[in-house]
Amino acid sequence: MKYLCLGYLNKEKMDALPKEEVDNVMRECQPHLQELYKSGHVLVDAGIGQEVKRLQRVDGEIQVDEDHLIQPDKIIGSAFILEAANFEEAIRVASLHPTVQVSLAEQLGWEIEIRAIDSFDMKG
Q1: How many whole angstroms separate alpha carbon 83 and alpha carbon 80?
Q2: Percent of the chain as helix, strand, coil, to the nearest 5
Q3: What is the pLDDT of residues 66-88, one digit of tens each?
Q4: Cβ pair 36, 93 in contact under 8 A
Q5: Binning pLDDT at 50, 70 and 90, where does residue 65 land?
Q6: How far apart are CA 59 and CA 79, in angstroms?
Q7: Distance in angstroms (rounded) separating the CA atoms of residues 85 and 97
Q8: pTM of the model
């Protein structure tokens, strides 16, 4: 089974850090990412930019909403797809991700949301 994992962060708390501290936190992420990759379960991993556009159909037309966040204090900072036998294994593997391993993660409001993927098709 495949699982979508979304890593959230508190934008306000991250933006308040000096650049040097952000760089240090990002360096601290690397060994944890390597452990996650070595697990052999990760199919896709992506760091997510902060610019947001939302599309929705309104009165039969597609409208683009600029920077309208559903939960403005938390933004998605990473997304990864992993393969696991069940939810418990998905939780075990996702727990290797820096979002829950880095020492400042709790202070910075980092968290992971895990969702089972019902359908998955790689076009290529």
Answers
A1: 10
A2: 30, 35, 35
A3: 765 566 678 899 999 999 999 99
A4: yes
A5: confident
A6: 32
A7: 18
A8: 0.87
